[in-house]
Write a structure and sequence with these properties.
By secondary structure, the chain is mostly helical. The chain is built from 4 helices and no strands. Helix 1 packs antiparallel against helix 2, helix 1 (2-37) runs parallel beside helix 3 and helix 2 packs antiparallel against helix 3. It has a single domain (2-136), classed as Phosphate transport system protein phou homolog 2, domain 2 (Methane Monooxygenase Hydroxylase, Chain G, domain 1). 85% of the residues lie in helices and 0% in strands.
Length: 137
């Protein structure tokens, strides 16, 4: 019974990290779109989502701490938990950078340079990489 609960916790952790990654992907794409189009409404939406992201990431960290302290996982379970911790830290970093990008449209006045379309291409590449890394997890 206890082992079944532990296995459910591992599944919930895996799904939480994947959901967190999808939320980060959404924030990243929206922040790039807001930046390119200087769309303040989209930028505000990103900033609202950012507050939820912090709580979500904190929940993942608490879950990981609980599992490490209470279950003392071994081998593949420990690798999964440590991977989840590292992935969530990187996702948090990406979301913080996306928030910084989303703040730009409110600060720019007038026209912006058109070479920013290259940023959209970079965004597409980063999104593709993020999606594929989450599939591997």
């Amino acid at each position: 019974m206890v082992r079944e609960q532990y296995l459910r916790q591992l599944d919930v952790l895996r799904e939480s990290v994947i959901s967190f990654g999808k939320m980060v992907e959404l924030i990243f794409c929206d922040s790039i779109d807001a930046f390119i189009d200087l769309d303040i409404k989209v930028a505000k939406r990103v900033l609202v989502l950012a507050a939820k992201m912090d709580k979500y990431e904190e929940g993942i960290e608490v879950s990981i701490s609980d599992m490490l302290a209470l279950q003392q996982p071994m081998a593949s379970d420990l690798r999964l938990i440590i991977s989840a911790l590292k992935i969530s830290a990187e996702l948090k970093r990406i979301s913080k950078l996306s928030i910084n990008i989303a703040k730009v449209p409110g600060k720019i006045k007038g026209e912006h340079v058109r070479y920013l379309m290259d940023i959209k291409k970079m965004s597409d590449i980063a999104t593709y990489m993020l999606e594929n890394s989450l599939k591997a997890f």
